[in-house]
Amino acid sequence: MQRMSFFEERARLLQMSTETDQLKYEKASDHLSAEAGGRYEECTLALVFLRSLREGLQFILSSNDAAADKFDDVVLCWNDEEDSTVSALFGQLKYKTSAKRTTISRSSLMGNKKDFSLRTYRDSYVKIRDSLDGGSYALVLSTNIDLDDDAQKRFENNEGQD
């Protein structure tokens, strides 16, 4: 039997759900949350939950969802009332409290270290993208620290330059 895509599975759950249903999903096994980072994640989940309620969405919210690979900290799926399509937001949260690390460097973004390596997140996307067929989605990286000047330049518009 062929495995359902992420969106097929969540669409089925959204159609079947009642107010008391619980989403059963595989938890990511490598999740080790520091106290401050865990609290940041809880507050973000609470914010997403309350905003989804305020918007009147029919939604499923999960955390540390293995189906999202590295984007597992916040996974929000909702039905679009107009056309019944399922949309999703996949979020990876990074909360840092170290006095030594106050910015993200370009080398951190372009390197192979886990925390802020864009390559790590690109590889994660490649790993899960086939299961994302059939729905619209956004992948989000969120942190409480800034990019340094050199890293910010990496994201500037370079139109007209070779």
Measured on Cα atoms, how large is the radius of gyration? 17 Å
Mean pLDDT: 81
Distance between the termini: 49 Å
How many distinct helices? 5
Poorly predicted runs: none
The best one-word shape is globular
The proportion of residues forming helix, as a percent range, comes to: 25-40%
Strand order of the largest sheet: 1-2-3-5
Order of helices and strands: HHEEEEHHEEH
Number of strands: 6
Number of domains: 1
Secondary structure layout:
Layout (H helix, E strand, L loop, with lengths): L5 H11 L18 H20 L4 E4 L11 E6 L6 E9 L8 E2 L1 H5 L7 H11 L7 E8 L2 E2 L1 H5 L9
Parallel strand pairs: 3-5, 4-6
Antiparallel strand pairs: 1-2, 2-3
What does this protein structure show overall?
- By secondary structure, this protein is α/β, with parallel strands linked by helices.
- The protein has one domain.
- It has five helices and six strands.
- It has helices spanning 6-16, 35-54, 106-110, 118-128, 149-153, and strands spanning 59-62, 74-79, 86-94, 103-104, 136-143, 146-147.
- The chain is globular, with a radius of gyration of 17 Å.
- The protein starts with 5 loop residues before the first helix and ends in a 9-residue tail after the last helix.
Labels describing this entry:
two-stranded parallel sheet, globular, 162 residues
Task: Provide a short characterization of the protein structure.
By secondary structure, the protein is of the alpha/beta class. 32% of the residues lie in helices and 19% in strands.
